[in-house]
Amino acid sequence: MKSVWEVLLTKADRAVRVAQQKLADAQQKKNLAVERSEKLDNMLTEYSNQLREVQVRSHHTGEVGNYQQFIFQLQAMKVRSNQEINVLDEVCMKARKIMMTREHERLKIELLAQREREKCEIDALAFENREIESRALQQFNLKVRS
Predict the structure, then answer these.
(1) Domain residue spans in the chain?
(2) Which CATH class, in words, describes the domain spanning 4-119?
(3) Which residues of 42-60 are buried (b: 16+ CB within 10 A; e: fewer)?
(4) pTM score, two decimals?
(5) pLDDT 10s digit of each residue in the chain, 146 long?
């Protein structure tokens, strides 16, 4: 029969795995957001360079305006991307804190389960020793009577 501590340890292990998975998911979302942000940076650099080229070779205001408007939209997306990264960073920190708390709880329960196992072993040895002593005393008493 499983002890209470063993059942709690199993439950704590499961809670740690769930917390680890949530942290991994949050980290993956953050990594994807960072990748998108880097792509936006590259696009901003690329289109800024193209805008400079257009301004140097041609003074067609419609084309320049289109580039400027697109760059403005990219900058707005970059701001939202940075906000998303900040939110996801907080989510990751909270998930990491929860995972560490669950792991700490699991370690405490594991220690208590180990203590209980050791106590049971000590109790079993003490019982066995008492039984051996009792039998030895009975044999001694039988020999003395005979």
Answers:
(1) 4-119
(2) mainly alpha
(3) eebeebeeebeebeeeeee
(4) 0.76
(5) 678 989 999 999 999 999 999 999 999 999 999 999 999 999 999 999 998 988 888 767 888 889 899 999 999 999 999 999 999 999 999 999 999 999 999 999 999 999 999 999 999 999 999 999 999 999 988 888 87
